[in-house]
Design brief:
Structural class: mainly alpha
Number of helices: 9
Radius of gyration: 18 Å
Helix content: over 70%
Shape: globular
Number of domains: 1
Mean pLDDT: 86
Distance between the termini: 26 Å
Number of strands: 0
Order of helices and strands: HHHHHHHHH
Largest sheet: none
Strand content: under 5%
Low-confidence stretches: none
Amino acid sequence: MGGVFGAVLARDLRISLRQRGTLVHHLLFFVLVVALFPLGTNTDETILVAVAPALIWMSVLLSILLSLQRLFRADHDEGVLTQYLVSPEPLALIALAKVVAYWLISGFVYVLAAPLLVLLLGVPVHALGAMIAALALGTPVLALIGAIGVALTLSLPRAGLLLSLLVFPLYVPVLIFGAGAMRAAIVGLNYAGALYVLAALAVLAITLAPWAIAAALRIGSE
């Protein structure tokens, strides 16, 4: 089983690295959403620091929704997904490998870029650790939940709006506790509880989401 996981992971990483233009496009979208907010609102530093947690998490959410559209689309169009479906290897393991590859290329980049952006918003340096930890725990959950929605809407030609309607309610707990951890760190409060909840959500998502993605792929490909 580890062999097929590593093979799918390596294949998706190679394909993603060849498509650097797409990766840069998604990163620029994330940066622009954050950078244009202070320019468009003309607010002072106090307000920017107050809204920074929500702004960062909403930017991450929108960027992930934008980039998730390509998670299974190429495999579906090229017939690779059909081979996965008839393969004796566990489809859940293959789905997990694809989501891990997606997160390493896209989600992890947001984790690295976010600290630079929040510093521009005036967030104090001592809050960066909490923000990085929250993003590192929360973005895999967003990716796994989003992958379920992508798999369910795979056969639909224009599924962007439907995908958003499906996954937004499930994203709410991650946004609440992710932004809450960062907000607590900014004002000097204990944020460990929020991180524990995010860690629990991450474990739950890693345990259950691959099976849900596999079932959704079978439903979506019919």
